[in-house]
Structure formats: structure tokens, C-alpha cells
Amino acid sequence: MLIDHFPVLGLRLRTPRLELRLPTPEELAELGELAVDGIHGPDLMPFGVPWTELPPDQLARRVIQRHWKTLAELKPDSWALNLAVFADGVPVGVQELEADDFAIQREIHSESWLGLRHQGRGIGTEMRAAMLHLAFAGLGADEAVSVGYLDNHASLQVSRKLGYAENGVGRSVSKGKLTFEQRFRLTRQAWEQHRSVDVTIEGLEPCLSLLGAEKE
């Protein structure tokens, strides 16, 4: 079976309201359509590459192709998991975690997006909390890092709520203009002090070697 060769297909994270896992082809199409419906308002661009401004057909295709690309390139020393986020069985967004040389660095990076119509309900915080539980409790990470543009107040608020500490301000370019981003760092100790969401993980053990996280 395919899952025997690619065990991340069986990985599941569950919180009181959410399930995070890889989507089926039909669910991936729904995610593309969700992105077309809107991720942010017209006065905000939270991404360095403004992919949300693509025409609707290209935008949906971009979501699908990025998912396929990350799966195709997944290997122990460089990987990204684009986990679909489900609330009441309906896809509401994507929570990504990625790492390079995880076996050595024990550090994960994260990105995410949430459909505009699902925002304002605490889902963004809960799905990030699930991802952090996977990173620290499941994979044995030492640190998690994140960045957010200074005008992306919702993202910055989630990081602060979950215990991330500010780790400097960096320069970046968005839509051809200089912009500034807040860098964040979360240690294992800070995560343990701020964790407040119950998370369960299923299907992790067969994935550990593929993610460079084998137990010693």
C-alpha cells in the first residue's frame, strides 16, 4: 500500500475542534477554492510572494501544486508538511511546518493560512498549537521559529499568545517594496509553560525516520 512507502499519509493531529492531516485530492481542490474565496483583506499582504493576488484559476492551482511539490521533495534532511486543517470535517486552512537538517538543528519553521470566513474564532491559535505539539512532543524539537510582517497583527498575536519571544526585526521585500518583519523564537521550556490546547497524535512512529527525527 502507498502508506507503507509514504507513512506521512497516516499522520493525524487532533485538538478539541480541529483535525490536521494531509488532504485527499478532493479536499485539496476544496482548499484551492477556499483560497480563492479569500485569505486576507485587500489592505494586507502577509506573504513575501503575493500568490493570493493570482487570478482565481491560477490561485487554486498554485495551492494544489505547492502541496504536491512539498510532498515530492520531502526527505529526511529537508522537508515541509502542508497539513490541511479541518473543522467539523470541512477544510478551513493549511498549517505548514518545515525543517532543514532536523536531526542536527532540531528547529522547525512554520507558515499557515486560514480562510477569511473562518477567522476570528481562535482557529489560527489552535492549529498552530497542534503543530507545536507535533514539533516538540512528537519530533523532539528544541526550538520553533516564525516571522510575521509588522502589520499582520493577527499572526503576531498568535505567536505571542503561544509563548514565542521576539527575536529581532528583519528587512524583507513585499510587492517590490521594503517591509519589516518581526522574528520570533520559541524554546521547548517556553512551549511547556504556555501550552493550553490538548493535542493527540496518530501515525507518527512510522514517519520519524522520513522526517529526520528517529529516537536515539
Structure description:
There is one protein chain. With 216 residues, the chain is an alpha+beta fold. It has a single domain (2-39, 49-207), classed as Aminopeptidase (3-Layer(aba) Sandwich), CATH 3.40.630.30. Helix content is 32%, strand content 31%. It has 7 helices and 9 strands; from the N terminus they run αββααββαβαβαββαβ. It has helices at residues 2-5, 25-37, 56-72, 102-105, 123-138, 153-161, 188-194; strands spanning 12-14, 18-21, 78-87, 90-100, 107-114, 143-149, 165-174, 177-187, 200-202. It has a 9-stranded mixed beta sheet with strand order 7-8-6-5-4-3-2-1-9, with helices on both faces. A hairpin with a 2-residue loop joins strand 7 and strand 8. Helix 2 crosses helix 3. It starts with a helix and ends in a 14-residue tail after the last strand. The mean pLDDT is 94.
Considering the chains and any ligands shown, give keywords for the structure.
216 residues, alpha+beta, Aminopeptidase, transferase, protein-N-terminal-alanine acetyltransferase activity, Ribosomal_N-acetyltransferase, protein N-terminal-serine acetyltransferase activity, Acyl_CoA_acyltransferase
Task: Describe the secondary-structure layout.
Elements: H1 2-5, E1 12-14, E2 18-21, H2 25-37, H3 56-72, E3 78-87, E4 90-100, H4 102-105, E5 107-114, H5 123-138, E6 143-149, H6 153-161, E7 165-174, E8 177-187, H7 188-194, E9 200-202
Parallel strand pairs: 5-6
Antiparallel strand pairs: 1-2, 1-9, 2-3, 3-4, 4-5, 6-8, 7-8
